[in-house]
Amino acid sequence: MTVKKKIYLAGPLFSQGERAFNMNLRDRLVEKGFSVFLPQEDGCDDTETRLELRQKNIFEKDVKGIDDCDIVVAVLDGGSDVDSGTAWEIGYAYAKGKKLVGLRTDFRTFGPEGIVNLMIEVSLDELVKDINQLLDVLEKI
Fold first, then answer.
1. Max Cα-Cα span within the chain
2. What is the DSSP secondary structure assignment for residue 97, as one 8-state letter?
3. Ordered domains of the chain (ranges, CATH)
4. What is the pTM of this model?
5. Span 94-121, pLDDT tens digits
6. For 50-73, what is each residue's pLDDT tens digit?
7. Are 116 and 109 contacting, i.e. CB atoms less than 8 angstroms apart?
8. What angle do CA 64, 69, 73 make, to 5 degrees?
9. Which residues of 88-126 are buried (b: 16+ CB within 10 A; e: fewer)?
């Protein structure tokens, strides 16, 4: 049996819709055999825990999650610009030499000038437009 790679799932997590999307995506990745670090659960990043553990602990858990992963999957939806925390996670992962795959399902931004901020887009190894395409790309990494 082959061991699948570890994925850090970066993305906005501040609305019920964002959190539900992240959990659904995590479940799809786990079904394919990947191990997934989901910051909203594994990093203890929710309002109650944030007050209890303080931001530094959440930060350290998330950084360790990136350090320990093979691939960062970054959800790039959430408006005209990438979520600031996700952008930081992408930059950190890039500096650490991690494989980076961006997922942008918001078709309103698809155009000739690019899909996301050029610093984000050029940092990525792959940029995909739906979950099925993401799963195909991850199987090849």
1. 46
2. T
3. 6-140 (3.40.50.450)
4. 0.88
5. 999 999 999 998 877 655 555 788 899 9
6. 566 667 788 888 999 999 999 999
7. yes
8. 110
9. ebbebbbeeebbbbbbbeeeeeeeeeebbeeebeebbeb
